[in-house]
């Protein structure tokens, strides 16, 4: 087997670095509370303002969203909401008497508080806001907090609109480990989350992993890892696009091409830099 290109990073060393950093941050936030969060927000986001998005600022952000973007967000929200409603109806409560005096049953009880994380560092993840907040609202969760990292002086306007439309009770302009910990511990007027949901980078995923047990989480998420196995009949452009679409998730999202055709491998290697130049995340690819 011959390598035309291979990664130099040590994934185990990177994982250890992330874990140690997140452990330190969570321990400090647990001990120092909101003061630690403010410190991390200044350090990582350059943020000095309020964390809770107020009505006036929220209205101003929503006003920045174009009518066409609002229409698209409303359409996506309607699809998720309709499915969530149907899904809820498919789960029924029941109560039966299996033997005289023996009653068994099932009750559907939503958690009291949910924390929804919406990535916003490299991209504004409107879809993440819709999919997490909408389903929690349909499930009947009484309190939903949503957090997204600020981009400059605010979170992305489209994300603010999606969060508001989906039904978030509190919107936090913060991200990363300190955003996850804020929702978990119920800081800045939030309520301690019973469950944390939503995607994020390696630090966000590790924060959720470390907090699991103290709070519920949706899943143990890891970086995207994708491999394509192809022979000489594969189209180089199609293969390159598939690789790039996964590699853009971040520097810790490796992709591989295994092929019996050196000609295909070299063609893909030529095409990928050209694709990257046309992508906003080309530096990552």
Could you outline the blueprint of secondary structure elements for this entry?
Layout: H1 11-32, H2 34-45, H3 55-64, H4 67-89, E1 94-99, E2 102-106, E3 113-117, H5 126-139, E4 143-148, H6 157-166, E5 170-173, H7 176-185, E6 195-197, H8 202-211, E7 216-217, E8 226-230, H9 236-247, E9 255-259, H10 262-277
Parallel strand pairs: 3-4, 3-6, 4-5, 6-7, 8-9
Antiparallel strand pairs: 1-2
Helix pairs in contact: 1-2, 1-7, 1-8, 3-6, 4-5, 4-6, 5-6, 7-8, 9-10
Shape: globular
- CA-based gyration radius: 22 Å
Strand order of the largest sheet: 5-4-3-6-7
CATH superfamily caption of the largest domain: Nitrogenase molybdenum iron protein domain
The tally of domains stands at 2
Give the biggest sheet.
5 strands, parallel
CATH topology of the largest domain: the name is Rossmann fold
Report the CATH architecture of the largest domain. Answer: 3-Layer(aba) Sandwich
Order of helices and strands: HHHHEEEHEHEHEHEEHEH
**Percent of residues in helical segments?**
40-55%
Estimate the mean pLDDT confidence: 91
Q: Which structural class do you get from the secondary structure elements?
A: alpha/beta
Query: For this structure, what is the CATH class of the largest domain?
Result: Alpha Beta
Weakly predicted, low-confidence segments: none
């Amino acid at each position: 087997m011959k390598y035309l290109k291979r990664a130099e990073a040590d994934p185990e060393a990177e994982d250890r670095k992330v874990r140690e950093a997140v452990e330190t941050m969570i321990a400090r936030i647990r001990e120092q509370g909101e003061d630690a969060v403010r410190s991390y927000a200044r350090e990582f986001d350059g943020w000095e303002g309020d964390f809770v998005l107020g009505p006036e600022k929220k209205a101003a952000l929503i006003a920045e969203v174009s009518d066409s973007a609002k229409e698209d967000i409303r359409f996506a929200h309607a699809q998720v909401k309709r499915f969530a409603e149907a899904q809820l109806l498919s789960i029924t409560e029941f109560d039966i008497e299996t033997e005289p005096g023996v009653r068994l049953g099932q009750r559907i009880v939503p958690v009291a508080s949910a924390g929804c994380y919406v990535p916003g560092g490299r991209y504004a993840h409107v879809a993440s806001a819709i999919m997490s907040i909408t389903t929690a609202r349909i499930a009947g969760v009484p309190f939903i907090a949503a957090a997204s990292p600020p981009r400059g002086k605010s979170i992305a306007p489209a994300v603010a609109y999606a969060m508001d439309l989906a039904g978030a009770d509190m919107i936090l302009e913060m991200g990363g480990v300190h955003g996850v910990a804020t929702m978990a511990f119920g800081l800045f007027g939030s309520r301690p989350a019973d469950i944390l949901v939503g995607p994020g980078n390696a630090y966000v995923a590790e924060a959720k992993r470390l907090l699991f047990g103290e709070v519920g989480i949706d899943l143990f998420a890891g970086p995207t890892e994708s491999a394509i196995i192809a022979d000489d009949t594969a189209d180089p452009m199609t293969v390159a696009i598939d690789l790039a679409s996964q590699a853009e998730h971040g520097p810790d999202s490796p992709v591989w091409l295994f092929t019996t055709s050196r000609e295909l491998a070299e063609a893909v290697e030529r095409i990928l830099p050209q694709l990257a130049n046309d992508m906003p995340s080309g530096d990552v690819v």
